[in-house]
């Protein structure tokens, strides 16, 4: 069941039912504009990752500022975007399973779609789905550029897979997917730059070998909020797949050289108990804010520390501040935006203390 | 947007689109029957906690076996249950906020409802909502029995709050909420029993002091899957609020004296990449299975270990087994059922390898 929206346009921020996912619209628009400005002098375009925002509304605001399309991780996310009018969606992931592939192939009638492979078995499955649907599917080869999660070995194994795709009359070879997600969380700037330099080297070498076989890459995609300035400057990557930049989370902001994005996403929460000494309990636990990358911050309330989350309760230690009152509102800064967004049905857009808009998180829960 | 169901009745289990939330119906029914049998010789009744299952369908199956009603943590959960025909719902939590209280008061026209307080300010808010709605709200006093999260101090402070509730013409004093959640995760059986003995002592003392003031407790509620046999045997608790017993998760099963429930809830997942040596990657990360209590288990596949979850990918180490094939299905046992359920729109009920039913998770995402 879709949950009812927690607010109405025109309300004051402190009237929103909590916990609720709040976008600070001024900060959010600053982030979209900043990314567009940072990429403008480079050869790379933005293909923003919708795994973060899961919303055709946000996608269109990004595309209005120059993004060439959207990335997703799941077919269900591709559906939500295409049904919401987004014209170009790349699944930056393998898709394994005949029902999923049939859904993706069906989508290609209303939207430019693509997907990735790191194994010939995936190519065979995609080929069957495309043939059955009477369309051609665009398929990129995902190479491992240092994360050791998915991705075929760069160089000859990747080239062989690309040739297999290019030889299929039901598929189109779309280029390389070369994402180094874990590099984004390396705190030392030099080590992080070194990891991306290695990713660029593996990607360039593979492109050169592909060219020797007569194959060019329409897309060379990768990068995230923690590293995209390196990939964008590489001359190799054509598409930047950052997502979190739109909202920012605590983890990316920890890097010393964090990019100039503002915190734009918050979970609004209410103090519901102050019975226990030294703590206040808020109505948001880990069902309401993801804690896989650490606890959320408490926004602009020095002396308050979010110390622990159970399912529906958050414990805030009152360390060097007056305890907030029962019923008082706090803003939490998610430790990790993407899974936090995925728990909610609605964004509540706020500007100058008033609710300005409600946007459905259309791909929320899009697992398959 | 509600996500489409990942399966249809009659399908084979290996045709379900993954990741998907699967109930093993034989194990699930065993668990419901077992709990009914364990409580039958005691004076305590089950008021199962719907924060785990979030489904009126599951609630009714529990009530058909003797449960007197359901617990919830949020007003949105109470709504989903009441709208689904559950006749008696207790919010085992404080409710702070005029919109939430108005919704709960409205619900009392179709369902027996109650809520908890640990502060007089909550009593005042509930009183106002009840008066505005022209109904009486049942309110329990939550006492701290050792968890130091919510709950007023047992004894005289709790008695004073109960008297305040009982004196209101818009409220009904409903009894005591005395939940010791953290005791459930104490591994040593004696220490766990000791924690509950202390909870029982604080509760009994408060009841005696209430009786001296002429107040009796229609409900004395608490207990969870990890401790309920102690509370049920105490002679003090009238209602047991266990929820996880229906499904069981990895964490509760770690206790040496784990109660005789079976793993009944799984996340079905598919191997989507085996490009990296020594691991296979499945299509379920922490968006699909909660990791706040640790990684999921891999069901009946010795030698495979779920070692890490990113947003949409799970890394399974192949330690002492043949690597599963691309496309092969695995069942994951959630480390923590409650937040895992809250990520999905549908239960897929499976028996003997076939999909038997689909049940909507009606209160999924019910935050406020």
From TrEMBL, chains A, B:
Residue ranges of every copy of the D-serine dehydratase-like domain listed in the record: 264-351
Protein's UniProt keywords contain Lyase: yes
Alphabetical list of Pfam families matching this protein: Ala_racemase_N (PF01168), D-ser_dehydrat (PF14031)
Origin superkingdom: Bacteria
Keyword Chaperone assigned: no
Keyword annotations of the record: Lyase
CDD domains given in the database record: PLPDE_III_LS_D-TA (cd06819)
InterPro entries registered for this protein in UniProt: Ala_racemase_N (IPR001608), D-amino_acid_metab_enzyme (IPR051466), D-ser_dehydrat-like_dom (IPR026956), D-ser_dehydrat-like_sf (IPR042208), PLP-binding_barrel (IPR029066)
Similarity remark: Belongs to the DSD1 family.
Protein name: Alanine racemase
Source species: Roseomonas fluvialis
